[in-house]
Amino acid sequence: MSTSKPLASAPAGTHAIVYGGSIAGLMSTAMLSRHFERVTLVERDVFPNGPMPRKGVPQAQHIHGLLTRGMDILAGFLPGIREDLVAAGGEFLDVVESVAMFGAGSWRPRFRSGVSAPSMSRLLLEWVVRQRLQALANVRILDGREAVALKTSGDRTRVTGLQVQAPGGGQEETLEAGLVVDASGRGSRMPQWLEALGYPRVEETRIHVDVGYATRLYRKPPGFEPGWRSLALSPKLPEERRLGIIQDIEDNRWLVTLGGWLGDSPSTAEEAVFLEFARGLPQPHLYEAIKNAEPLGPIHLYRFPHHQRRHYERMPRLPEGLAVVGDAFCSFNPTYGQGMSTGAMQAEALGECLRQGLRGASDRYRQRAGQILQGPWALATAGDLGFPEVEGKRPPGFGLMTWYGNRFQQLAGYDEEAMTLFARVQHMIESPAAMFSPRMVLKVLAVRPDKAAQTPGPRPLAASTP
């Protein structure tokens, strides 16, 4: 196990509380351990003693991606966490070289890009991070407790703590703190709590996409070496709607997710429905890989009705000593894999605001978080708004941007420089603005779709199966 001592940092206060044991909550706890004498993590569930699912995270058994930027931030909060993850069975793989990707109607080139990301289950990631937090002397994990209300100053301008109780009732307990962080996810009750305190209702933006997906765990077939570690088959939006992913995870297993937009997803958790959906993907490779593989559990279904962004940055006022992170602030269509990494960026931003002192940190943070969300929100909603059926305000120039994005995808189908840049933007290492450099614009204008179609995909699976 890596060092359990928090990194030295300027103290901002005596006690901070994070409620919600999500990835965003865990990262926020790790960050706050560097700024407060004590940090308490409150979670409604009782944390399992191992990488196992829990009721409060129904999507935990599906594929998750911690992007490169998110991993870098986590490693800054908890030095040595990469080594801990590898010791627990995880891996770090080049996101271009190790993944066979089919998107925008063609296979992507594969080569060493220098962009690596973790390849493991969310269950393992959470478990390893929780172990690190439990080892920190100034962190207390209070699970099996439900947050029921904020405690504030008499004039309600400052949050002074959190009231908690056992789920379902019981005697309430008040925890005093100089900062309370809401990491309770999409179902956060913060809007209602603030209204009860006399604050205006936070403005929300929702974009309904009706995404659904089904995930099953498989044993990787012995001797199966197709030349890729993971496989991603993406639709050509908006003409197609279905996707399929095989993610290589710890213990020689695969997580296999099938899904789609606007209700086009597996309708039941039946094996025949799952396999037939896989057979209907734009390429046969995923179906061929799993049709004779050994299932290791049931098929899990999940539905995501809409993007949800709460505009705390637009609030005319909020109480001091309060911050909202992760899905409680903004929840993205999970097929784009931005959620955990955006939560990491918010936790990092909160830490930067605390370096200027606790006074005013809440207002500084919510403005900064609003700025951080602009890029990921634009990327995540751009593809979905391309569906005529999806209701939502299209930004100025949406048609031109969609045309350019499609052309860039075609360029990435054969141009290694464009593919590397795409990976760096996707993993939040570079801003999307990098795609509009003069050099890239010239390449996009001269794109050759016929050349993208010539990029070879993985060799036939029949030649790879034992």
Automatic annotation (TrEMBL):
State the superkingdom.
Answer: Bacteria
Q: Which InterPro entries match?
A: FAD/NAD-bd_sf (IPR036188)
Q: Which Pfam families match?
A: FAD_oxidored
| SUPFAM superfamilies assigned to the protein according to its UniProt record, in alphabetical order | FAD/NAD(P)-binding domain
Classification via PANTHER family = THIAMINE THIAZOLE SYNTHASE (PTHR43422:SF3)
Listed name of the protein: 2-polyprenyl-6-methoxyphenol hydroxylase-like FAD-dependent oxidoreductase
**Which organism was this protein described from?**
Archangium gephyra
